[in-house]
Write a structure and sequence with these properties.
It is built from five helices and seven strands; from the N terminus they run E-H-H-E-E-E-H-E-H-E-E-H. By secondary structure, the chain is α+β, with helices and mostly antiparallel strands. The chain has a seven-stranded mixed β-sheet with strand order 1-2-3-4-5-7-6, with helices on both faces. Strand 3 (about 70-80) and strand 4 form a beta hairpin. Helix 3 packs antiparallel against helix 5 (about 165-180). The protein is globular. The two termini are about 20 Å apart.
Length: about 180
């Protein structure tokens, strides 16, 4: 594998510690706890799975041979219930901003929503996180409301966004990515 290109894979329990490090770096006021990640991963495997969690790693020039680990540079998670999915979390290390990693993580989640047979995907995003809002808009998410004081302890509002037909969004985003680069 080429150094510098993030590889996506299923998140496992041993990823929780490095995910928490990135979580606290990016979201210091409202970071998830280890228990929250453990709870989500408990629903991510098996025939009755309702979650999809993925991490992104960058490997050194020596590649990803058995027994080696890469630097964790992103993660994302989705929960599904019936025909509705919810993006639980998505994050990319600051040095990965602008590389397309956020779009790749979101594409993975939307493919999972399609596999879960979800007709809609919801998410909450901080009202002051315009970078993320623009990403979601590129994928077809539309604002549908606010959750006042959603992010604590900072008392920051969340913009609620909805995407209908996640299968169509992943097709369009893939075609757009291929034509742009």
């Amino acid at each position: 594998m080429t150094a510098g290109i993030a590889v996506l894979r299923e998140m496992r329990w041993w990823d929780i510690e490095p995910v928490l490090e990135l979580e606290h770096e990016l979201f210091p006021e409202d970071a998830w706890s280890a228990g929250m990640f453990w709870s989500e991963l408990a629903h991510a495997r098996g025939p009755h799975a309702t979650r999809r969690y993925v991490v992104a790693e960058i490997f050194s020039d020596s590649g990803s041979a058995a027994g080696t680990t890469g630097r964790l540079v992103g993660y994302a998670g989705l929960a599904a219930a019936g025909d509705l999915a919810d993006v639980q979390t998505i994050a990319a290390a600051r040095d990965q901003w602008g590389t397309g990693l956020g779009a790749r993580l979101l594409t993975d989640l939307l493919r999972a929503a399609t596999a879960f047979e979800c007709a809609e995907v919801l998410l909450e995003v901080r009202v002051d996180n315009t970078r993320a809002q623009k990403l979601y808009e590129r994928f077809g998410f539309e604002p549908i409301g606010f959750r006042r004081g959603y992010y604590q302890p900072g008392n920051v509002d969340a913009l609620v966004m909805r995407l209908t037909d996640p299968a169509q969004a992943t097709t369009e985003s893939t075609e757009s990515s291929e034509s742009n680069g």
